[in-house]
């Protein structure tokens, strides 16, 4: 995308990343979380790589993407649950697509063969983004959790790498 650079996220980006995360939380359709965690908690929960930040020409963080492991069991080492968040001011400008494309490429270099995403059915923009990047719906987890006292469904989407883990 023109004017956007995708780079590794660093701890120095945390305040911007946290602000963007809070904006997503505020929509009520991005996550079951109700507040962004501390850097230490977020850092412990996410894989060290890939962690990406989208920046504008002035170096401001416009969005971020990262992976959490789906399990501590070694057989799932190549499966990552992804998060992609875009600043409210930058939505609809291709930032999410640039981040997700870069996350797919980076995750394959890291040996990840499956990316999965849990998305609220009401989050049409996120569903369209993921489908446009080759994700497919594999299921609907009905009433999987409550957000502010309301049961919510989550659609489970996944993308299998054709470059990693495809077998002989």
What is the fold's blueprint, element by element?
Elements: E1 5-8, H1 14-27, H2 39-45, E2 51-55, E3 61-69, E4 79-86, H3 95-109, E5 114-119, H4 124-132, E6 136-147, E7 150-160
Residue windows where pLDDT falls under 50 for at least 5 positions: none
Overall geometry comes to globular
**Distance linking N and C termini:** 35 Å
Which bin fits the share of residues in helices?
A: 25-40%
Quantity of strands, as a count: 7
User: How would you spell out the order of helices and strands?
Assistant: EHHEEEHEHEE
State the secondary-structure class. alpha+beta
- Indicate the multimeric state: single chain
Concise account of the structure shown:
The protein has 168 residues and is α+β, with helices and mostly antiparallel strands. It contains four helices and seven strands, in the order βααβββαβαββ.
Q: Any overview of this molecule?
A:
- By secondary structure, the protein is α+β, with helices and mostly antiparallel strands.
- 27% of the residues lie in helices and 33% in strands.
- The protein is built from four helices and seven strands; from the N terminus they run E-H-H-E-E-E-H-E-H-E-E.
- A seven-stranded mixed sheet has the order 1-2-3-4-5-7-6.
- It starts with a strand and ends in an 8-residue tail after the last strand.
- The relative contact order is 0.16.
């Amino acid at each position: 995308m023109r004017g956007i650079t995708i780079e590794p996220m660093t701890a120095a980006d945390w305040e911007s990343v946290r602000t963007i995360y809070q904006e997503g939380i505020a929509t009520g359709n991005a996550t079951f979380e109700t507040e962004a965690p501390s850097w230490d908690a977020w850092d412990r929960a996410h894989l060290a790589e890939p962690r990406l930040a989208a920046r504008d020409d002035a170096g401001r963080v416009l969005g971020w993407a990262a992976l959490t492991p789906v399990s501590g069991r070694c057989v799932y080492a190549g499966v990552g649950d992804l998060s992609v968040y875009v600043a409210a001011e930058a939505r609809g400008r291709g930032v999410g697509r640039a981040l997700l494309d870069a996350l797919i490429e980076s995750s394959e270099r890291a040996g990840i063969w499956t990316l999965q995403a849990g998305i609220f059915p009401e989050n049409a923009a996120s569903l369209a983004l993921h489908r446009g990047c080759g994700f497919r719906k594999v299921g609907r987890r009905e009433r999987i959790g409550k957000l502010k006292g309301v049961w919510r469904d989550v659609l489970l989407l996944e993308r299998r790498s054709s470059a990693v883990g495809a077998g002989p």
